[in-house]
Amino acid sequence: MTRTTTALLLPLLLAAAAGAGDDHGNSTTTDYIRSSCNATLYPDLCYTSLSRYSAAVQQSPRRLARVAIGVALSKVRRTASFLANNASALADYGSDRRAAAALHDCRSNLGDAAEEIRGSLKQMRQLGAAGATEEAFRFQMSNVQTWMSAALTDEETCTDGFQDVADGEVKAAVYARAAEAKKYTSNALALVNTYAAAGTP
Known about the structure:
By secondary structure, this protein is an all-alpha fold. It is built from nine helices and no strands. It has helices at 3-24, 27-37, 43-50, 54-57, 61-85, 87-92, 97-125, 134-160, 169-198. α2 packs antiparallel against α3, α5 (61-85) runs antiparallel to α7 and α8 packs antiparallel against α9 (169-198). The chain is elongated. It starts with a helix and ends with a helix. Mean pLDDT is 84; it is low at 15-25. It comes from Linum tenue. Keywords: Signal. InterPro entries: Invertase/methylesterase_inhib, Pectinesterase_inhib_dom, PME_Inhibitor. GO terms for molecular function: pectinesterase inhibitor activity.
């Protein structure tokens, strides 16, 4: 699946899952999501961002992890798009060399993070393709964990780059969005780790 195809299909897949959740979600499945989100660093955000997909998730840790990765990818891509679409406007506030450098690096970091999360999502969709053995499962999940961890590191690098930047328009416009995207990735990684630890394809 190409990057363009993934970009086109992701909103449709998430929308379909959300629609299913609106029509058929019930307290059992949403309670499952709430309970699972307790393993994350941001449980409230986890629940509010994923509960709408309850019908698609049911009580499957695999589906929950996959949806969480998809939601994180969508969030990171929107943040990267904001930077790209507003680069010139943000630059007007970035006469400070540190701010300009932080902005440039953040755009690169988020682009890398999006690619890594996309790789994780692709691997999640291929679970079982290499066989249903425990060894194959652990290999595939190790790839997912590695890519999600790398994405989180890239997002942290983005926000860390603004620590020495004076408060102002650039920092306010970018930092908050990047920090929020980082929370989604962190939650997705926690749910991936929970699923991987279960050891069940």
